[in-house]
């Protein structure tokens, strides 16, 4: 009934906001009940993990993605670092998602705005052995930290750290306790290192091979498709997100685009913010200097700016935005009271995408905003469908084009190296992880991991088109050690297996020859 009310178009929007808060709390209550029930199963020895083969790299990427909007709202840099593109483990997906969501949400909970949260993952070798035997995931924050006297108790059930620094951040004392139980059920370990005032690091170790798992684990009889796994993961992450502070919810079906409005006229600023706030996440600034800082911090999907402002005028601001790699991709609309052709030309030469004269019709401004955002989205979608990757087709400025060309050059140079990952990419690009992450996401719609994999697969498609090579050989040429996993990724990207793809190309070529 609650969901029906939320979906009812006749219900007032303000009432829907209250209903959505109720929905979040219902979801949170359901999660707590489920975790309490799992405690009972653990105590009675009835908890059975249903494990399936899972790419931990990809799963953690999905979990991190669910925090992106919240991270942006608090200007927290969320970094996900790994060398491998895949680490296949035998896991109970639902339990592991709960563990890492708990750890990352705690990192956000106890970290200040403008800080950094890092998730690192790498294979490890047990002392005295020659082969990798486990994988280690570290969740690192720059938060308030935990005093030494409390560390030994934080995994105890219902234990809550006391102290003045915890005010307003009290939890249930369930999250870390259930996380420890889930990890130990996977024959793994979870530990913590912390320095008060500097931050905490939670370290999770999980075995790499199935034979290392404990006896009470059972193989899942469910053979979920990739799509079904994605849907189940999204559904669980939506429910878990109810535990994050009420100002943020991932339960909405439609992700709002973000907008930055820069205007020194207070009345006009408030008018525009109110009119756009229903459809967009709106951030405001009353001068150009502050607007530029917010553009770097928030990375909005579009910027609307006045031309005559204190500290920095709209033309100067636009030039700075378009000449800074961190912001060059963002569409800019300039509003101005000037009516001369020279001023109009000056704005366009500064890199403005649209130049609108005051007084303006709000419906026209709204249509221009939608058109610019939609056109960027269409470019991203079209880019993902093309077999031959053309940086020129997705860029907004020459700066973006140079970035994409260098990015493609670095990836293609290392395309046969299966160990090539984000850390190697950032080193060769000589840029920070956060800049590359934001830029790739803004220009292509994909995160860095997805983009690297997409380049590998599209290169494979080109090789299958032009050369008659075995699929196993093509797989190695584009950095996939496992031909089976390569085929799985290829099907996901193109809808057919590599062999079917190559066969289809050969049939097309034969038909063309016959027609000639």
Give a description of the structure.
The protein is of the alpha/beta class and 516 residues long. The chain has helices at 2-7, 13-43, 56-65, 68-73, 93-109, 148-151, 175-185, 226-240, 266-276, 288-298, 314-322, 341-349, 362-385, 398-413, 422-429, 433-444, 448-466, 471-477, 483-494, 498-515; strands at 50-55, 77-82, 88-91, 116-125, 132-140, 189-195, 199-207, 218-219, 257-262, 280-285, 302-306, 332-336, 354-357. The strands form three sheets. Strands 2-4-5-7-6 form a five-stranded mixed sheet. α5 runs antiparallel to α7, α5 (93-109) runs parallel beside α8 (226-240) and α10 runs parallel beside α11 (314-322). Mean pLDDT is 81; it is low at 163-170 and 245-254.
Question: Could you describe the largest sheet, including whether it forms a barrel?
Answer: 5 strands, mixed
Strand order of the largest sheet: 2-4-5-7-6
Separation, N- and C-terminal Cα atoms:
64 Å
> How would you state the average pLDDT, rounded?
81
| Helical percentage | 40-55%
Uncertain ranges: 163-170, 245-254
Q: What is the beta-strand fraction?
A: 15-25%
Tell me briefly what this model is:
The chain has 516 residues and is α/β, with parallel strands linked by helices.
Topology:
Blueprint: H1 2-7, H2 13-43, E1 50-55, H3 56-65, H4 68-73, E2 77-82, E3 88-91, H5 93-109, E4 116-125, E5 132-140, H6 148-151, H7 175-185, E6 189-195, E7 199-207, E8 218-219, H8 226-240, E9 257-262, H9 266-276, E10 280-285, H10 288-298, E11 302-306, H11 314-322, E12 332-336, H12 341-349, E13 354-357, H13 362-385, H14 398-413, H15 422-429, H16 433-444, H17 448-466, H18 471-477, H19 483-494, H20 498-515
Parallel strand pairs: 1-8, 2-4, 9-10, 9-11, 11-12, 12-13
Antiparallel strand pairs: 1-3, 4-5, 5-7, 6-7
Helix pairs in contact: 3-5, 5-7, 5-8, 10-11
């Amino acid at each position: 009934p609650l969901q029906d009310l939320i979906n009812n178009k006749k219900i007032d929007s303000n009432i829907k906001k209250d209903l959505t808060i109720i929905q979040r709390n219902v979801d949170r209550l359901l999660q707590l009940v489920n975790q309490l029930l799992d405690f009972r199963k653990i105590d009675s020895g009835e908890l059975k993990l249903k494990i399936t083969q899972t790419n931990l790299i990809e799963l953690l990427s999905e979990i991190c993605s669910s925090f992106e909007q919240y991270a942006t709202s608090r200007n927290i840099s969320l970094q996900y670092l790994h060398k491998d593109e895949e680490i296949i483990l035998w896991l109970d997906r639902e339990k592991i998602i709960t563990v890492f969501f708990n750890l990352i949400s705690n990192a956000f909970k106890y970290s200040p705005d403008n800080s950094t949260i890092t998730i690192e993952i790498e294979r490890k070798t047990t002392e005295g052995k020659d082969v990798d035997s486990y994988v280690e995931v570290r969740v690192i924050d720059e938060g308030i930290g935990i005093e030494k006297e409390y560390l030994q108790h934080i995994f105890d059930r219902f234990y809550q750290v006391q102290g003045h620094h915890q005010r307003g951040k009290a939890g249930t004392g369930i999250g870390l306790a259930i996380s420890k139980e889930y990890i130990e059920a996977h024959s793994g370990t979870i530990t913590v290192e912390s320095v008060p005032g500097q931050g905490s690091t939670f370290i999770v170790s999980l075995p790499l091979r199935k034979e290392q798992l404990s006896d009470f684990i059972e193989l899942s009889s469910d053979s979920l498709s990739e799509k079904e796994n994605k849907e189940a993961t999204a559904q669980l992450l939506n429910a878990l997100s109810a535990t994050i502070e009420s100002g943020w919810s991932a339960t909405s079906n439609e992700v709002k685009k973000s907008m930055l409005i820069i205007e020194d006229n207070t009345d006009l600023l408030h008018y525009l913010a109110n009119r756009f706030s229903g459809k967009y996440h709106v951030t405001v600034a009353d001068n150009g200097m502050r607007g530029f800082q917010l553009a770097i911090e928030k990375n909005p999907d579009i910027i609307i700016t006045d031309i005559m402002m204190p500290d920095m005028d709209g033309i100067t601001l636009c030039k700075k935005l378009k000449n800074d790699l961190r912001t060059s991709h963002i569409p800019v609309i300039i509003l101005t009271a000037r009516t001369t052709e020279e001023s109009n030309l000056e704005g366009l030469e500064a890199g403005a995408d649209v130049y609108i004269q005051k007084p303006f019709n709000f419906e026209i401004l709204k249509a221009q905003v939608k058109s610019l955002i939609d056109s960027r989205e269409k470019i991203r979608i079209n880019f993902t469908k093309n077999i031959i990757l053309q940086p020129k087709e997705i860029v907004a400025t020459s700066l973006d084009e140079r970035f994409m060309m260098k990015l493609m050059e670095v990836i293609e140079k290392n395309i046969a190296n299966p160990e090539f990952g984000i850390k190697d990419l950032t080193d060769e690009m000589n840029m920070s992880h956060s800049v590359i992450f934001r830029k790739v996401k803004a220009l292509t719609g994909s995160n860095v991991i997805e983009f690297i994999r997409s380049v590998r697969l599209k290169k494979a498609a080109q090789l299958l088109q032009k050369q008659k090579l075995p699929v196993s050989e093509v797989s190695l040429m584009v950095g996939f050690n496992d031909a089976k996993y390569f085929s799985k990724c290829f099907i996901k990207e193109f809808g057919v297996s590599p062999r079917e793809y190559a066969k289809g190309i050969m049939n097309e070529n034969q038909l063309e020859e016959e027609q000639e």
